[in-house]
Write a structure and sequence with these properties.
Blueprint (H helix, E strand, L loop, with lengths): L16 H14 L13 H12 L9 H18 L9 H12 L7 H18 L8 H97 L4 H27 L16 H7 L4 E6 L7 H21 L6 E7 L3 E8 L13 H12 L3 E6 L5 E8 L75
Parallel strand pairs: 1-2
Antiparallel strand pairs: 2-3, 3-5, 4-5
Helix pairs in contact: 2-3, 3-4, 3-5, 4-6, 5-6, 6-7, 6-9, 9-10
Protein name: histidine kinase
InterPro entries: DUF7134, HATPase_C_sf, HATPase_dom, Sensor_HK_TwoCompSys, Sig_transdc_His_kin_sub3_dim/P
Catalytic activity: ATP + protein L-histidine = ADP + protein N-phospho-L-histidine
Length: 471
């Protein structure tokens, strides 16, 4: 009810206080003087009436400027006809010219110049032909020219001032709009960057969780299956298997707590534990069981943490896929070649290879590709023509680094796996396997196998991703 209390006044444009004051002062000061030449006292009423027509429309000079111009033009024309001399109310004309230029756009504002030019001609003609003027014709012409210049200048100068001020206001508004658009674009770009960062962080966290959980659970399952078989043959040896299971579980819990701590803690509060690197690969391979063998060639270099973590995760994921998909009788060789400008990783097994089925996940291989690509390296993944599966990655180094002072000792196996190229691969890698002898037919670690450490009878859970294995 309160919103419609005064429905008839809705949309009515009331004059501003400044316009009211200007109109009152100008009307009181100029409208009642009549004909300034006082040549026709009988026409004073017409002079006052037309003067009011020139001053009172100033009330709507901002709200309805074209209506003001129409009324003032008619009043001025009537004054030229009815009053033989000029009146003081003509001081309203410059105000009208300024108001039209200030508040009207484009060609419509030039109407005041047309009206002013007509008035600047008719007014002086009427005044110089006043019956009270006694000068010669040449004097009349000179006076007409002078009065025309004065009248036209009184219209043109205020018009130019009003147009300049209007153009300045329009330019300022354009600058303000441009600033608002730039600010909105900045907010949009910032939101896009935030979404992109959020997506990248989610992918990084998912990749870390996948690498840690999948590998740890695979090692635990393999060791548990092996321990079950060992318990029936050599109960005294089960303690070592249980220790490996416990250690792997503790490491997985530590990694999980680290990741969760980063997610929950605020800036500067997270506990950033050292990430695994090249020096941690031997321990990780050893915990995977005696079916996985490590061979290295060259000195372990000092590399950036990101490169070391990438190499570790690639080996970890490849070993995890081997444990899950290669089969209980398969064996795996992890070969690492440290060169001055390149690290080459080759993880090859003699398992089921292309025979493995696909579980549709594919997160592990995708994570490896993302990590290697981020380091500017290349990766080849696929089954071997002779059976089995191979992952081969190359990580470039920015410069040559000295050997790592704490390089762990890595035992050298007595047998090697025969080198064969993958039958389906994404990239072409080097043809030689670091630390191997071409032509050896034995599988890694085969001569070291004893009855006390039988292979795990784990039931395989297979999938195939791009002709290979992935979890």
């Amino acid at each position: 009810m309160s919103t419609s209390r005064w429905p008839l006044r809705r949309g009515v444009a009331l004059p501003s206080k400044g316009d009211i004051a200007l109109t009152v002062v100008l009307t009181a000061a100029t409208a009642f003087w009549g004909d300034l030449l006082a040549t026709s006292p009988t026409r004073q009423f017409a002079a006052v009436l037309t003067s009011l027509g020139l001053t009172l429309p100033l009330l709507v000079r901002q709200r309805r400027p074209l209506i003001m111009l129409a009324i003032v033009s008619v009043a001025g024309l009537v004054q030229c006809v009815a009053v033989p001399g000029p009146t003081a109310s003509l001081l309203a004309v410059p105000v009208v010219a300024y108001s039209i230029a200030r508040w009207i756009d484009g060609g419509s504002s030039r109407l005041v110049l047309v009206s002013g030019t007509i008035g600047a001609v008719l007014g002086p003609l009427r005044w110089v032909h006043n019956p009270g003027f006694t000068g010669e014709d040449t004097s009349r012409v000179g006076l007409f020219v002078l009065l025309f210049i004065m009248c036209f200048t009184a219209v043109l100068v205020p018009y130019l001032i009003g147009r300049r001020l209007r153009e300045n206001d329009i330019a300022a508004q354009e600058l303000a709009r441009a600033a608002v658009q730039r600010y909105e674009a900045t907010l949009t770009n910032r939101a896009e960057r935030a979404r992109s960062t959020e997506a990248r962080v989610r992918n990084d966290i998912a990749r870390e969780l996948h690498d840690v959980v999948a590998h740890s659970l695979s090692v635990i399952v393999v060791q548990a299956e092996g321990g079950k078989a060992m318990a029936a043959r050599n109960p005294q040896g089960t303690g070592e298997v249980l220790d490996i299971i416990a250690e792997t579980g503790r490491e997985a819990l530590t990694e999980m707590r680290r990741i969760v701590g980063v997610l929950r803690a605020g800036p500067g509060q997270a506990d950033y534990a050292p990430q695994p690197g090249l020096e941690d690969i031997p321990g990780m391979v050893e915990r995977a069981g005696d079916r996985v063998e490590l061979v290295t060639d060259g000195e372990v270099p000092v590399v950036p943490a990101t490169v070391g973590l990438t190499a570790y995760r690639v080996v970890q994921e490849a070993v995890t896929n081997f444990l899950k998909h290669a089969g209980p009788q398969a064996r795996c060789l992890v070969a690492i070649d440290y060169e001055p400008s390149l690290i080459t990783l080759v993880i090859r097994d003699d398992g089921w290879g292309a025979q493995a089925s696909d579980d549709g996940a594919g997160n592990g291989l995708r994570g490896m590709r993302e990590r290697v690509s981020a380091m500017g390296g290349t990766i080849t993944v696929g089954p071997l023509s002779s059976g089995g599966f191979q992952v081969q990655a190359q990580l470039p180094l920015a410069s040559h680094h000295p050997a790592h002072p704490n390089r762990p000792a890595v035992p050298t196996p007595s047998t090697r796996m025969e080198h064969t190229e993958p039958t389906s691969a994404e990239h072409t890698g080097p043809t030689g396997l670091p630390g191997t002898r071409r032509g050896d037919a034995g599988l890694p670690g085969e001569s070291a196998q004893t009855a006390s450490t039988p292979p795990s009878p784990m039931a395989p859970d297979h999938d195939e991703n791009e002709g290979g294995m992935d979890d």
